[in-house]
């Protein structure tokens, strides 16, 4: 591997696979099960293969350890955290301070912006592009060539009703079909599907499915 010219302070588990042409910055942590493809680039402070440590009050199941696999040419920005079980295709970009949760799959050429959060078991197609501060809920499905502006929230159905048992809640992730575009600040509510090549305006709150090719805006979006 190619190390930063500065003191690397690198922590690598015994079974980690790092090719000779990978670049690794300062203060990088590679947990067990990490597999890097050729020409990967890890900036300073990156953590790969992080295991889940839920809080005492969490009702979320703890996934078993799984390999963390980054495709050839993937770039991971400064202080980004990639949890165990994440898989990326080739030439993926994970921005500075981003968080990618367990089981996420990102297709080739996908790009995740600064401080974005990718939820557990999310599925991205190829060439998906998100900008800064997006929140992408657990289990969401995003098809090829989708664009997502800054500060967008794709919700996955977390219940907020008083008195409900959160452990009994069934998530309803949203789905973004091929080539749709989501404007900055928009919120897509649980279970909503945005059709192919549809456009969602900035700051819209989308509560119903959006047909293919349609443009919606407003609160609620129409």
Quick tags:
single chain; 222 residues; mainly beta; UDP N-Acetylglucosamine Acyltransferase, domain 1; 2 domains; 10-stranded parallel β-sheet; 6-stranded parallel β-sheet
Span from first to last CA? 52 Å
Radius of gyration: 18 Å
Task: Count every helix, treating DSSP H or I runs of 4 or more residues as helices.
Answer: 0
Total number of beta strands:
29
Supply the CATH architecture of the largest domain.
3 Solenoid
Could you please describe the fold and organization of this structure?
The chain is an all-beta fold and 222 residues long. It folds into two domains: 1-53 and 65-118, Hexapeptide repeat proteins (UDP N-Acetylglucosamine Acyltransferase, domain 1, 3 Solenoid); 128-161 and 168-222, Hexapeptide repeat proteins (UDP N-Acetylglucosamine Acyltransferase, domain 1). 0% of the residues lie in helices and 28% in strands. The protein contains no helices and 29 strands. Strands 2-4-7-10-13-16-19-22-25-28 form a ten-stranded parallel beta sheet, with no helix packed on it. The protein is globular, with a radius of gyration of 18 Å. The chain starts with a strand and ends in a 6-residue tail after the last strand. The model has no long low-confidence stretch (mean pLDDT 90).
């Amino acid at each position: 591997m190619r190390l930063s010219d500065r003191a690397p302070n690198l922590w690598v588990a015994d079974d980690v696979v790092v090719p000779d042409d990978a670049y690794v910055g300062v203060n990088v942590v590679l947990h067990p099960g990490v597999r890097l493809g050729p020409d990967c680039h890890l900036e300073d402070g990156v953590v790969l293969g992080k295991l889940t440590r839920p809080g005492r009050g969490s009702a979320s199941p703890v996934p078993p350890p799984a390999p963390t696999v980054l495709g050839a040419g993937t770039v991971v920005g400064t202080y980004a955290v990639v949890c165990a079980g994440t898989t990326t295709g080739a030439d993926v970009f994970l921005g500075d301070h981003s968080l990618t949760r367990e089981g996420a799959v990102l297709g080739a050429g996908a790009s995740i912006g600064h401080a974005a959060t990718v939820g557990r078991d999310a599925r991205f197609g190829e060439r998906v592009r998100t900008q800064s501060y997006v929140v992408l809920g657990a289990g969401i499905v995003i098809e090829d060539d989708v664009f997502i502006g800054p500060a967008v929230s794709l919700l996955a159905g977390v219940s907020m009703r008083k008195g409900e048992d959160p452990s009994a809640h069934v998530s309803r992730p949203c789905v973004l079909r091929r080539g749709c575009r989501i404007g900055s600040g928009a919120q897509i509510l649980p279970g909503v599907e945005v059709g192919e090549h549809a456009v969602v305006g900035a700051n819209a709150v989308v509560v119903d499915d959006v047909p293919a090719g349609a443009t919606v805006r407003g609160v609620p979006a129409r």
